[in-house]
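Thread: Newbie trying to understand structure tokens

Hi all, I'm a second-year student working on a class project, and my supervisor (Dr. K.) asked me to get a predicted structure for one chain before our next meeting. I've only ever worked with sequences, so writing a 3D structure as a token string is new to me. If someone could post the tokens and maybe explain what I'm looking at, I'd be very grateful. Here's the chain:
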Amino acid sequence: MTRIINDFTLNIATANGTGSQSANLIILNSIFEMGVPVSGKNYFPSNISGLPTWYIIRVSDAGYQAPGNETNYRVIMNKDTWVDDIEKAESGSVIIYNENVKLPIERDDCTVFGMPMTKMARGVNPKLSRMIANMYYVGALAHLLKIDDEAILKAVTNQFSGKEKAIELNMRAIGEGREYAAENWLDEVEHQVEAREKDPNSFLIDGNEATALGSIYGGVNMLAWYPITPSSSVAEEIIQWLPKLRNGEDGGATCAVLQAEDELAAAGMVLGANWAGGRGMTATSGPGISLMSEFIGLGYYAEIPAVFWDVNRVGPSTGLPTRTQQGDLSMLYEASHGDTQHIVLIPGTVNECFEFGWKIFDVAERYQTPVFGFSDLDLGMNHWETSGFEYPPTKMDRGKVIRTQAQLDAIENYGRYRDIDGDGICYRTLPGSGLEPILTRGTGRDEDGIYSENPEDYVKHMARLKRKIDGARDELPAPIIREEENKQVGIIYYGSMENVIVEIDDMLESTGLSVSTCRVRSLPYHSEVQQFIESHEQVIVLEINRDGQLFGILRKELPVNLLSKMHKVAYSDGLPPRAQIYSDLILETIHMEVSV
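---
Reply by user tm_fold:
Sure, no problem. This is what the structure looks like when written as tokens:
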């Protein structure tokens, strides 16, 4: 039998609340410890316990991280999805199942392996047998895939750090599962794992934890939040890491953490903290941003720095709260009523989650405005490989803050909302400084901050706000551009689409189509994005939503002569993007344009 090494997809079907996540992460981490490129996707239900959950592991020497186009191994543990999971198994795939479920498996075209996992788990610990049963499929896969014992032990030890009894019980179950498979199953399967040289500095981390760490290094000193999937772990990780990284010299806290009564209250607290000169932030998702919109508008109009992280889930309404999407982009860019325009930072990797986590505070204070970090469930809650982060400079960018009377006296004709330098950014003082009175109005005012309903004052103020945000374009993170000699087709994309774009590129190249790519990392879009569009005959804007929201923003702001060459490819089903779907849609769109 021909062996296929380090190129397969594994689907594990269990029920939420059975402890399967620990088993799944042990498989993921043990393969990672062998130096093999691997990624994991957790498809979990939006309830506490009982509903079906799936964990998808992609192993790929090529570094592909999206779910594969076919599944090579299926572990079936959940009786509620038993029939459907079996029907979805591709011909020739391997099915591993728990015999104690006592449901039939009728697939003569698949390799089927059964094991009495629950019965065996009772022999280890009757009280914990429901959870320990999962470790038997870990052992089974370790045998079939040839996963190293040392890698398994390290993954188990890390998973149950400091819990010697748990490590002993789970290692026993994994060992028994491996032995059973070796004694009762065929040893010949097509796909296997083979060790590669591992970067000693590499580790796995999810985007939310990377964002949390970046926020701490960025100087956050007030976190106000209200729990909502999939953003809650941003706040939870900040809370967990603060005592280790940010305690004061006397052991006291250096960051206030407040769980508000709702998202609206959290937004108000963030504005209050930043108005007072602190670095306040919140983390939420689309429904939370909707509730925060009035305060967001106040921050924009009154020019108060603030940081909002949106970890996007599927909407509208409650939608699919534990699935992923890029459906909030338009809302963030123009959040609140009236004419608003906001700065949005869009990470596409865990390294950028960390980098933008600290950089976003500098941007908010430099431009004195709410700034959004835009992540999503796939990037935020799944694990990705990194070899370390780019740490911030020792000096923060606090923007145009006047701290002394001498600084104030040096500014001719100071006014809180007077544009002294012509860049749209005014100077501000902080409460308690003893300087000019702090005037922060959400109503009409003149350049000195005095209440005004004069139309000329309003027009002048709104024009300056527009000039200020537009002026940020080329100061924000520039796009990542990969140019090919053949410049006929360019692909613009953003965010977690980064984790599938290489595979999409390879699929398109196999059809004879060579493309250049441009990953947008901020709004308002950088001037290099327009240059990229100008240099290609056709441009595809690739998005994980229904309507093509970045496509709409670009069409609204680009010169009219560029619009005819732009086409959208937007698709969203709640799952992380799969390369085949988007490749097919791109080819279909290009062929339609050629035929026209």
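A couple of things are worth pointing out once you decode it. The first helix runs from residue 20 to 33. The chain has a mean pLDDT of 94. Feel free to ask follow-ups in this thread.
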